Records
---
Amino acid sequence: MERLTKADRACAVAAAAAHDLNDELTVIVNSVACGLHALEPGHPARALLLEAQSAAQRCVWKTSGMLNYAARRGTRPANVPMERLVLENDEPALRYY
């Protein structure tokens, strides 16, 4: 029973993080779209903005998947701001070699 409780808690925290990320990604997607609209068709920055737009849309798809998974489990996002989860973490950062 304890394992299920921990899994549900982890799912709720992941859903809260995904929700916060979706909010930020909405700003990024809209800003990139406005930038693309403002540039001439042959402008050299268009290729970079199109790449950023594709990456942001992939992130939106992934975070939406996390939220859908949590919803299917019947989990509601935890009422914890993502900044609190990140800034109050006492564990050392992961290192990739």
---
Amino acid sequence: METPGELYFASSHEWVRIEDDGTLTIGISDFAQRELGDLVFVETPEIDARVEAEQGIAVVESVKAASDIFAPVAGTVSDSNTALAESPELVNTDPYGEGWIFKMTDVEAGDVVDALMSADDYDARVSEDT
């Protein structure tokens, strides 16, 4: 399982990358996409939506199940990955790259660090669950 060290993780398996401009890029972890199986549909959140931490704002559907995607922290949705409408499998093939789901602004980087797990902590948690 791949877990890039520069990312932060929610207990609900969303990952967060803090970009140089302070924007957050969010997707689901490699572990989560493997558990879900082949994705067949991704509903991304509405741009400019103001969201609270742990609010369900997107949905992924696989051949196995549908699952909510939660906002890892409070902020504003600034972008959604429209490519997922035509190619939801990008989440399976490149979960930390082309498979990102949405971006957020109006978030303090310190809030991310305080609220989420490091990659090492996430790996330890996932190891306990398997």
---
Amino acid sequence: MLLDPTQVPCQTHSNYPSPFLPTVAGRTKQKLGDAAGIKNFGVNLVCLAPGSCSALRHWHTRQDEFIYVLAGELVLTTNAGSQTLTAGMAAGFPAGEQDGHHLCNQSQADTTYLEIGDRTPNDQVDYPDDDLVAHWVQERWQFTHKDGTFYHAPQA
């Protein structure tokens, strides 16, 4: 299916509980894969404003992730530390590897990248730096503290 990305709506909201929303303020996503009718994996065109991050540092138990930087400069932080990624660079994050990662825009200009991930069911996401766990339940993320108690839903 032919797709014009300029016609795909930009989403600025996050499913994170409210205490974690400031980390991703300034992040916009266009769900290109959904717009193209793709069912087995997701493809998002993501723009990070200066000072914004892709997510909290995290890793998935069952889903693979891949990113490809299209424009600008990002700082990738993993268990090994931080490194700068520029246009044309890519990184992959295999499911089950307990290597928390996220991308932050520490530059003075917007940064754009493709984010690709599979949709394996029964995934869980661990956030090693935060008291947060996400569980994929009934086609949506449910967030709990690490002790299993639920967070309240984010404010829309």
